[in-house]
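User: Please fill in residues for this 103-position structure.
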């Protein structure tokens, strides 16, 4: 590798050099990642497996929707997190307890 004195460069030249170096580093990193990915996929295939068998599903697991733990007779629901909704605040003010609405 050749050496040169960065101290002789202007601010603009240094900024250009840094931008070019960053682009080159990014490109080299992407090349290395692609090669690694190819090597892994080749190794998996050579052993007779699929990506999914080795690493699991490609996609994210489906989100599980939990039913609201509190509900009134009108179908209003409260998940138990965050501020209580107006219907629940009013019911509690009128003498009901939170547990009365437990589903």
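Assistant: Residues filled in for all 103 positions:
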């Amino acid at each position: 590798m050749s050496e040169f004195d960065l101290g002789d460069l202007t601010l603009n030249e240094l900024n250009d050099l840094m931008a070019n170096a960053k682009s080159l580093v990014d490109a080299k990193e992407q090349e290395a990642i692609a090669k690694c990915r190819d090597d892994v996929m080749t190794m998996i295939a050579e052993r007779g497996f699929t990506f999914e068998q080795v690493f699991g599903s490609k996609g994210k697991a489906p989100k599980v929707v939990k039913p609201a733990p509190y509900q009134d007779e009108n179908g209003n629901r409260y998940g138990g997190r965050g501020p209580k909704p107006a219907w629940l605040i009013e019911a509690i003010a009128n003498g009901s307890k939170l547990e009365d609405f437990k589903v």
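For context: The two ends are 72 Å apart (CA to CA).
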